[in-house]
## 1
Amino acid sequence: MEIIKRRRPSEIAGGFFWLCHPLPVCFHTIAVFLFALLAVGSVAWTGRSWYLLVLIVAAHTSMQLSIAVLNDYCDRRLDAASKPEKPIPRGLVRPREALILGILLIAIMVLLLLPLQPLALLISLLYLACGLSYNLGLKSTPFSGIVFALAIPLIPLYAFAAVGHIIPLVFWMIPVAALLGAALNLANSLPDLEKDAANHARTLAVVLGEKQSLIVCSLLVLLSAVLVGVFTLTRLVPALLVVVIPTLVVTSLAIGAMFLFFAPTRPAQVRKIYFYLMVLVCFVLAGGWLIGALF
């Protein structure tokens, strides 16, 4: 890939756009928006509710953007060898600019969190610590899945803590969200499996291999579905069976179909589609359960 020495404004703008990993950040923003909407709706809706909703989403989005930007900053040397098309190796964004932007986004996150409950700031800092530890080295180890398993459950906890009203359902969501987070991390690693192996990165996907990774991804989501079913049937989390049962059926069928279609030796582009479909399945499972439990 040709390195750009003189940058046009359009090239700089495009570089910063892709530096922010727009699609993954969009997924996180959608998730926090839905949880924030539920959290704000769980208390009396007032004129301040929209203000809270915007702050909750904006603060978390700023943090996700900072993690995304600093991820590319930390990986800039590896990317120069294995992913020369990325903004920093191409010269569209200079390393120092990425570092400054990442730090600035963290500062914006903190400022946006100050008007919210102090617990929301603490949870966000824990999430940020998980993200930065991932960037600074855990990404290339089998422990990367643990980072996601710890971080993803913090999203609903953060949203409800921000409005000062944490409902019992949030705590039951922690094990389900942890399993889904580990599955998403593994699925996200699959497209880069060969490149990571060539660079001697020991991600969980590299350690397991493609076939075993697909099996583990499927099992993690199915185990999440089992937990949702157990919580519902035992009334630990009262929910409408007419909503939860179809959700579990659709989830199980989707995971089965994906496992059969996305057989090993598929190219990286197809494995990327697998990741996006896995995100969709996780949204369906979590969303269906929440709808059944809250409405």
## 2
Amino acid sequence: MMFTVNPFATLAATVPPAVMQTFIVVMIVLVAAGTLFDVVHKGSARHFFDNWRKSKSKSSKPVGAGELLSLAVQTGLVDVLASGEFCSARRRIAHLLTMYGFVLYVVATVVMVFNYSTASLWPLLWWIGGLMVCLGGYWFWFFIRVDVAAEGHSPFRLVHADLFVLSLLASVTLGLIWSAAGAGAGVLFFLYILATTVLFGSVPWSKFAHMFFKPAAAFEKRLTDANGSRNNLPGPADRPELFGGAREQPRHF
């Protein structure tokens, strides 16, 4: 039954719905504000447009509007929706599970918080999304990370760059446990809210904003390849074995 019960409707018996709805709005504002701060502080947008202008000035062939549209579509379909930048099949599958699971989980959360009378499909989608995040996230954390798979470090070793994935896993895992335990307003709920606040409130210091920057970077790469500028980098080698590329396929990128 827990897969068909809206946990936020159960919570409404002790916590007014307006409280959770306000919390959702605050999290959205934190993500927007954090992303804008990240863009201004790190100069991401300026860097992107500077590279765009440089690539145009050094291009060896013009790129028309039709080709630009084609590059944008390719970026969306291959680099964004299919995570085509990953060479490793394991890394790509783990990333896709986490990405689509997170989107499904967040959308279902918003729907269930703002519409308690919704049909039982949304709680089921919420669970599916959360389990996808856990499957992809924990698989990545314990078996695929570069410092674990390639460098032999302990999977429990933490660095600043791990803030996003850890807060994501903590938020989703605690949310599922809280729901399975009855969705009450107790300690589990407090920990769930705390982890969620860290996830969405730490955007300026985590890799959360990368999900917005990566499509722009992927589009820029395709554009520089198309106009011949290649960011001043050499073209792909015809014989990668000369550079050692054929000796071992990458396992963790």
